[in-house]
Amino acid sequence: MLDDSLIRKVLSKATPPGAAFAELFVEERTSNVYALEDSRVEDVNSGRELGAGVRVVVGNRASYAYTNVLSEAALLETAEAARAGSAAAETSPAVDLRRLEGPVTSVVQRPPDEIDAEEKVGALRRADEAARLAGDKVRQVLVSYADVRQRILVAGTDGRFAEDDRTRVRLAVRVVAAEGGEIATGFEAPGHSGGFELLDRHTPEEVAGEAARKALMMLTARPSPAGEFPVVLAPGTGGVLIHEACGHGLEADTLAKNASVYAGKHGDRFGSDKVTIVDDATQVGSWGSFGIDDEGTPAQRTVLFHEGILVGHINDLKSAARLGAEATGNGRRQSYAHLPIVRMTNTDLVAGNDDPKEIVASIKRGVYAASFAGGEVNPATGKFVFGMAEAYMIENGKVTFPIKGATLIGDGPGVLAAIEAVGPDFERNEGVCGKDGQHAPVTNGMSTVLLSRITVGGTET
Question: Looking at residue 121, what is its pLDDT?
């Protein structure tokens, strides 16, 4: 993306004497977004972004500057701005660059830039038609398709030099159903690291049909009871609970500030031997995967909990240095205009061997959480509140009627301790995680899981 000699000039210009390191991040991003509402194409947006950022670290301080012009003059000016916090006037030579290679994490079978707009819009129309065929209670259908190709280059004065080429595709369908004053929504949004072949694996008809099913089912929902219940988490979507309640507390920037409920607890037991949790950016085709992170560290698989015991955390270069640990490849940034921060990638509760049917059959009265609708978590305490988008009562070992207004209330360590059974029916669910004003694609993975007892908030009177 840039000539090696120019990269060396920029790093040399950016590096004051005494700097821990200087780093250059270059990004080229092309994207296409199509949106359909009320059977009309409402938005077609294509764009190309090109830019670079320079980070300089001196002691515990970091300065950052960026530009959307990749000329030599603009890059050297950006490097000079990034080192402006240092009083030193002279520059320092950059060390020889060594290329780092990450694992292959995505295979693009049908490059999105080779698919014409007519086929992409056709997919939206197919989804819209399928959702409306679900019944006359469907009032609104919103469909969107997005693809992005991101090429990055990272080089540092510590010798790091790496490049990555990432393509992601996602199809999202939201269906609104109404009857007799009741309104319900259903949402389905598969995505992956790969090409347009996503829509062969998850056809627009299937995605829209599932979103419509959820909306129509929740129209019949009764108010949720409140109290302590055994709760069964559905495969895939239940993984967001692990992501929010446990994963954020193991991001090293939080640990380094002693602002996590898990700080100083390495080696402690939090759950049974059924609880193994990993963060793994090396999964081929997963939405949160990449070859290298946004600091040039190769993607890795990091075990966080092994058979119930806290054994690891995730970090970027800065937090790894503070904690005296090796970088785990979790330095991520939204774009060249942002500093890297510690982020999860694909976070999974590893599958177990318990029969999902027997898990449900073992419950006299409880709740089946089929999907979540967002929530809040405090990493310092681990306490959270999550809304359930789709949930059902379990009575005498059977899933019965849908419930609405249900929330899950607890804390991360409490959830881990409550995991009593883990099934083999592992699935993943894609999402976008927000942190410090930045957003990143992430995947949450889980099988059917039984929480022995947890607080459910409800509206039943």
Answer: 97
